[in-house]
Structures are given as C-alpha cells and as structure tokens.
Amino acid sequence: MALHIRPGTLADEGAAVAFNVAMALETEGKTLHEPTLRAGVRAALADPAKGFYLMAERGGEVVGQLMVTTEWSDWRNGWYWWIQSVYVKPEARGAGVFRALFEHLKAKAVADPSIIGMRLYVEHDNARAKAVYAKLGLSEEPYHLMGVYPLPGRESAFV
C-alpha cells in the first residue's frame, strides 16, 4: 500500500496528541500533561508561524508524523527547520515511513532558498534513532544543548 505524505490539519489533532504521548513515554520515559500538549498541538496546527506538521498516511490511516519549527540565523541569513515530534507507529517501523517524511521535507527545504539547513534533537541514549538519522545524511553538530525549563514560576509540561 502506498505511503502518502501531507500537511497536518486541525483534523489531525487527536493523532498528533496520541503520537506525542507515545513518543515521550517511549524515548524519554516522560508522561506529558495532556491538556498542555493538546493546546500546543492545536496551536501549531492552527498557526503556521508556530510550526507545521507533516503526516504520513497508509491506506487512509496516519502512521507517522513530524513537526517543524523555525529558527532564524543572523550569521547565515536564513532559516533552519527544526524537526521535532517525530513518531512512527510501531507496526509501521522499518517500512520507510520516517525516510518518506524526511525526504518530503528535505525536498520542500531545497526548493525554498530561504531555508539553509535542517536540524533535530535526539535523546543522547537513543542509538536506534541516531542510526536512522545518520543513514539519511544527518550528522552530529558541534553544539551542546543547554537551557532553562521550566522558567521560574511556571509549571512543567511533564506529569
């Protein structure tokens, strides 16, 4: 059965929420606060300035997703696309779903001269994901991620 890659829509809210819950638990052992997650997914699906989802469908069923957010680089005078919220249903893994999502996204990026690169976060210990990403041509960047989350006085999105 053919795989179809398409933009996420508001109708994909339920799938995106379920996929993000499953991904956080599987890759980081974290339980997401579902009302916060649902509001965040809905906000991204409703406002392209916040990001966009790509959904992979097979036989009318959503089997995978990724979300993209943007980062402006003053040094490079262009946009980075940050790949986030990657998830492929377990029964669809190993069948090229993420590859199809990634290649679709890469073609869109290459066609837009304002996009200068693509990046993603990967959990330090997620060797399987790192191997998949390396096969697709992604390489380790010379940066170490640091941050403050949650900000003082704010609640975490994790239960």
Quick take:
This protein is of the alpha+beta class. Helix content is 33%, strand content 26%.
What order do the helices and strands come in, and which of them pair?
Blueprint: E1 3-7, H1 13-28, H2 34-46, E2 52-58, E3 61-73, E4 78-88, H3 97-111, E5 115-120, H4 127-135
Parallel strand pairs: 4-5
Antiparallel strand pairs: 1-2, 2-3, 3-4
Helix pairs in contact: 1-2
Describe the largest sheet. 5 strands, mixed
C-alpha termini separation = 38 Å
Structural class: alpha+beta
User: Uncertain regions: pLDDT < 50 for 5+ in a row?
Assistant: none
The quaternary structure here is single chain
Q: In what order do the strands lie side by side in the largest sheet?
A: 1-2-3-4-5
Shape: globular
Mean pLDDT: 96
Query: How many domains is the backbone divided into?
Result: 1
CATH-wise, what's the superfamily? Gcn5-related N-acetyltransferase (GNAT)
Approximate helicity band: 25-40%
Indicate the CATH class.
Alpha Beta
Report the portion of residues in β strands.
Answer: 25-35%
Description:
With 159 residues, the chain is α+β, with helices and mostly antiparallel strands. It has a single domain, classed as Aminopeptidase, CATH 3.40.630.30. 33% of the residues lie in helices and 26% in strands. It has a 5-stranded mixed beta sheet. The longest helix is centred in the first third of the chain and has 16 residues, at 13-28. The protein is globular, with a radius of gyration of 16 Å. The mean pLDDT is 96.
